Amino acid sequence: MKTSAFKFVKLWINKIDFYSSKKYLNKKTISISIGIFLLLVILAYLLRPVYFDYDAKREVLQDKIKNVFKLNTKINGKISYKIFPLPKIVIKNVRLGKIQKTN
Predict the structure, then answer these.
(1) Selection from 92, 94, 99 nearest residue 72 by Cα
(2) Residues 75, 93: contact at Cβ < 8 Å?
(3) Would you give the distance in Å from CA 82 to the centre of its chain?
(4) Comparing 5-14, 46-55, 73-82, 85-94, which segment has the lowest mean pLDDT?
(5) Residue 77 contacts residue 50 (beta carbons within 8 Å)
């Protein structure tokens, strides 16, 4: 006897009891799950820069500054990341110069 995939899925859906999940989906569990999700997003945002090696990616940062701000840069100092009061990258001992346009 041949059964189509549609019939198989329909039988499988009929076996699922959707009403038993209603007792788990109340305001308390939804608010807790949203809070945990937001906490995980914030932690991922704050912990991500810890694993990034800024000194190894010195050339990448120099190229980004050159492309965005149109400045030639030479980073000689330390590169770090500060979280508070606002997340930012701190670069010390930088030489800046304008890009010369050639015609």
Answers:
(1) 99
(2) yes
(3) 17
(4) 46-55
(5) no
Tokens of 50: 């810890």
Sequence ranges of the domains in the chain: 1-51, 52-103
Question: Distance (Å, rounded) from C-alpha 89 to C-alpha 57?
Answer: 13
Sign of the dihedral defined by the CA atoms of residues 102, 66, 97, 54, in that order: negative
CA distance 35 to 38: 5
Tens-digit pLDDT profile for residues 56-67:
888 988 999 889
Cα separation, 99 vs 69, in Å, equals: 10
- Alpha-carbon gap, residue 29 to 59, rounded angstroms: 47
